[in-house]
Design a protein that fits this description.
By secondary structure, the chain is of the alpha+beta class.
Length: 59
């Protein structure tokens, strides 16, 4: 499944994040793991947004 909605991504058992960009600059595995593990990956755009999402949800 290709998904961009953080509400869905945060519930996944396992994420395979492809990137780092789209088109010719993408298609490489940037991060894999649980949403919490991907959130810790500084090279992952998905990880960046998950990290921010988790920070906001702790408030």
């Amino acid at each position: 499944v290709i998904e961009h909605n953080l509400e869905v991504i945060k519930c996944a058992d396992w994420i395979i994040d492809l990137g780092p960009e789209g088109g010719d600059k993408g298609g490489y595995i940037v991060a894999t793991g649980t949403p919490e593990e991907v959130a810790k990956n500084s090279k992952s755009y998905t990880g960046y947004f998950l990290r921010k999402y988790f920070e906001r949800s702790k408030i």
